[in-house]
Amino acid sequence: KQEVTQIPAALSVPEGENLVLNCSFTDSAIYNLQWFRQDPGKGLTSLLLIQSSQREQTSGRLNASLDKSSGRSTLYIAASQPGDSATYLCAVKGNSGNTPLVFGKGTRLSVIA
Amino acid sequence: NAGVTQTPKFRILKIGQSMTLQCTQDMNHNYMYWYRQDPGMGLKLIYYSVGAGITDKGEVPNGYNVSRSTTEDFPLRLELAAPSQTSVYFCASSYTGQGRGVYGYTFGSGTRLTVV
Description:
The structure holds two protein chains of two kinds. Chain A has strands at residues 4-7, 10-14, 19-25, 30-38, 44-51, 56-59, 62-67, 72-77, 86-94, 101-103, 107-112. By secondary structure, chain A is mainly β. In chain B, strand 9 (87-96) and strand 10 form a beta hairpin. In chain B, strands 2, 4, 5, 6, 9, 10 and 11 form a seven-stranded mixed sheet that branches. Chain B has a four-stranded antiparallel sheet with strand order 1-3-8-7, with no helix packed on it. The relative contact order of chain B is 0.32.
């Protein structure tokens, strides 16, 4: 059974700092990995999707990397801003058939002005 | 584009009552999902559907039922509400093309349900 772990559970940084969020998964037979953002009381917004054949994806100040063999992904946020404050969730899709996404518990990020 | 629309946004139920959480998507996505999110516990899959007329259980299906009569709609039914079903419920959809490719998920804004 796939398990997804995110470390740390919570993180507080000063504005302008670069930061890294970590995600690990137990079964390396994944099809893709997705990073989401969730604001308090809101739904999930997809940030980046990495296919299993890819090493990284970039969108603006966000960069996600994937090391499938070691079961790890990182989300790098450059020059953090107070508007980046949210919970960031990592999710993986397995390789077999109709396997849905399996989510981590998320990292709650606070960027202090 | 409305994306994924969930109703209601909030609801309080008494123990033993029934209700249906509605979910509609207008992106012609073939896959639809229901997740529940408990504080500090991440999202857990309740049911999912790969197309109209086809549904399957997820990780935590007990106490829930679903149907998928059309591509657009995927309602979630609670027959006898229990306090353990107090949670935030999210509906999502995705498109799966040829093979197993999933081209990203779109989530609704959630339904916050309290059972008292």
